[in-house]
């Protein structure tokens, strides 16, 4: 199950929203001293939000994003850069692809093993039901086009096929009452929200007991932002079609509970293409699938070399529990910080230098900014170094640079903030995430304002506007985020 966690720059996590306090509230509780004011303002921007705990409801569900205010957008209003998928990415070699395929396909996020391979056999109709926001139809059309062209899947938005994926929008209050710790999710063999509520404990809606996929329903809060709708569609529809597991160790996929990636990547499309290769079929055992994979991967990724068996590198449940506690609800600040530190120790003891280690340091940075900014910055820098050295983790590195740019802005180092924003934008991977782009341009605008460059400040605000409403969902939500960044700039200006 994917956790309902949002990095700072993304739209607000559920159920806690970033930016609900008025601008004056950012400094609430701060002492009159400049250092305390800066720490309070910085913490309000950087550590606001929460990671929702895993749902223990049965059947197991796959969650995605949080919610904010709804904004109905027509196609011309979609943020630029979001229509044709992310930029091209590198793929791992076939040995790693094969290991990833097996772990994604034969385990649930809870660690339960899946006894057989399941998928849809034949064409699949992916349709919207009920009062879907207009933007959902546009985003679903873009997603289906990518699934057809990049993964070669036999899917369409036309009804009439025996295999169906239905996307249904449910009032947020109803979803919170039933599954308070999840945002959006997919369930097999249910037809409606009422059907889902009555299906708890039903074997037909248990992924581990499926014998074949014929129908699934994705549930999304009706008041989600455009970006949240797109993100939910990408993750939940893809997991209805393919793997239902999420892995912290994978840097370049939406199937990771860190939620940094927001749209399907080249890695994801390659896994889905392999999932629907003619050599596979529903009912195959793990051993049968493993035996078929070398030929499949050699065909779809010929430059990936031959597939060989790699040493197992599972993520222990202790790490998952530590991250969930650190970035989740139900624990006080001291327990959360201790859990984040525990995650870094697990990563160190296992010799990890991958996205799991980096995410643990990210958690430390997020949780210590208010109490120990220097420690937080050091943790973010460790995370950034690991992400920048990890192929496929460019979007994570951009998020870290945004965190550091916000800190630089709030501590009076405007030129450093500009440099960090520029580095985050240079890779171009951030263009898949409108809320991240908007926040980066807000920081750039305020930094240029501190530097007295009115022309560049104005341009940055223009650049911000083309992303902001798509990412945050309403003018009011955009203003709240802009006010938070402005409050940081004001704190930084007082340093000088």
Question: What would you say this structure looks like, in words?
Answer:
Helix 1 (34-46) runs antiparallel to helix 17, helix 13 packs parallel to helix 15 (434-451) and helix 13 packs across helix 17 (475-495). Helix 3 (134-151) links the parallel strand 1 (124-129) and strand 2 (155-156). The protein contains 17 helices and 5 strands. Helices cover 49% and strands 5% of the residues. It has a 5-stranded mixed β-sheet. The chain starts with 33 loop residues before the first helix and ends with a helix. The chain has helices spanning 34-46, 94-105, 134-151, 172-178, 193-197, 226-241, 266-275, 286-300, 317-326, 333-349, 355-368, 373-388, 394-410, 414-426, 434-451, 454-472, 475-495, and strands spanning 124-129, 155-156, 163-170, 185-188, 215-221.
Please summarize what this structure is.
It comes from Thioclava electrotropha. By secondary structure, this protein is mostly helical.
Mean pLDDT: 84
Number of helical elements = 17
How much strand content do the residues show?
5-15%
Q: Spatial order of the strands in the main sheet? A: 2-1-3-5-4
Q: For the CA atoms, what is the radius of gyration?
A: 22 Å
> Strand count, sense and closure of the main sheet?
5 strands, mixed
Rounded to the nearest angstrom, the distance between the terminal CA atoms is: 47 Å
pLDDT < 50 stretches: 1-38, 46-59, 62-77
Shape, per Cα inertia axes: globular
Q: What is the count of β-strands?
A: 5
Order of helices and strands: HHEHEEHEHEHHHHHHHHHHHH
Structural class: mainly alpha
Protein name: DUF2927 domain-containing protein
Pfam families: DUF2927
Organism: Thioclava electrotropha
Region (Disordered): 1-31
């Amino acid at each position: 199950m994917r956790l309902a966690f949002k990095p700072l720059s993304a739209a607000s996590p559920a159920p806690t929203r970033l930016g609900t306090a008025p601008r004056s509230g950012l400094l609430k509780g701060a002492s009159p001293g400049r250092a305390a004011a800066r720490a309070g303002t910085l913490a309000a921007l950087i550590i606001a939000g929460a990671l929702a705990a895993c749902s223990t409801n049965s059947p197991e569900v796959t969650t995605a994003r949080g919610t904010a205010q709804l904004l109905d957008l027509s196609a011309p209003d979609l943020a630029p850069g979001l229509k044709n998928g992310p930029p091209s990415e590198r793929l791992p070699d076939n040995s790693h692809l094969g290991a990833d395929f097996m772990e994604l396909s034969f385990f649930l996020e809870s660690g339960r093993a899946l006894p057989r391979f399941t998928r849809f056999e034949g064409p699949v109709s992916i349709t919207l039901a009920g009062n879907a926001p207009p933007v959902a139809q546009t985003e679903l059309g873009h997603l289906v086009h990518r699934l057809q062209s990049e993964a070669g899947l036999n899917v369409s938005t036309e009804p009439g096929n025996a295999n169906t994926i239905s996307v249904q929008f449910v009032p947020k209050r109803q979803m919170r009452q039933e599954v308070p710790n999840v945002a959006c999710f997919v369930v097999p063999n249910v037809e409606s929200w009422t059907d889902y509520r009555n299906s708890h404990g039903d074997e037909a809606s248990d992924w581990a007991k499926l014998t074949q996929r014929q129908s699934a329903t994705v549930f999304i809060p009706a008041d989600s932002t455009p970006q949240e709708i797109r993100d939910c569609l990408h993750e939940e529809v893809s997991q209805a079609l393919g793997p239902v597991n999420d892995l912290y160790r994978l840097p370049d996929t939406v199937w990771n509970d860190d939620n940094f990636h927001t749209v399907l990547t080249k890695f994801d499309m390659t896994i889905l293409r392999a999932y629907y290769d003619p050599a596979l079929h529903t009912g195959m055992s793990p051993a049968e699938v493993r035996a078929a994979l070398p030929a499949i991967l050699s065909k779809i990724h010929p430059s990936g070399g031959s597939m060989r068996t790699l040493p197992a590198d599972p993520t222990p449940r202790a790490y998952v529990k530590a991250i969930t506690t650190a970035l989740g609800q139900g624990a006080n600040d001291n327990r959360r910080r201790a859990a984040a530190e525990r995650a870094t120790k697990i990563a160190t003891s296992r010799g990890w230098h991958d996205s799991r280690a980096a995410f643990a340091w990210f958690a430390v940075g997020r949780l210590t900014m208010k109490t120990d900014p220097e420690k937080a910055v050091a943790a973010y820098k460790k995370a950034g170094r690991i992400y920048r050295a990890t192929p496929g983790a460019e979007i994570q590195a951009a998020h870290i640079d945004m965190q550091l740019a916000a800190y630089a802005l709030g501590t009076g180092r405007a030129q450093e903030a500009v440099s960090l924003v520029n580095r985050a934008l240079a890779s171009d991977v951030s263009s898949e995430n409108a809320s991240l782009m908007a926040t980066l341009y807000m920081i750039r605008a305020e930094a240029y304002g501190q530097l007295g460059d009115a022309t560049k400040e104005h341009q940055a605000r223009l650049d911000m506007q083309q992303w902001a409403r798509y990412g945050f969902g309403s003018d009011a939500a955009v203003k709240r985020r802009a006010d938070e960044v402005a409050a940081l700039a004001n704190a930084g200006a007082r340093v000088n």
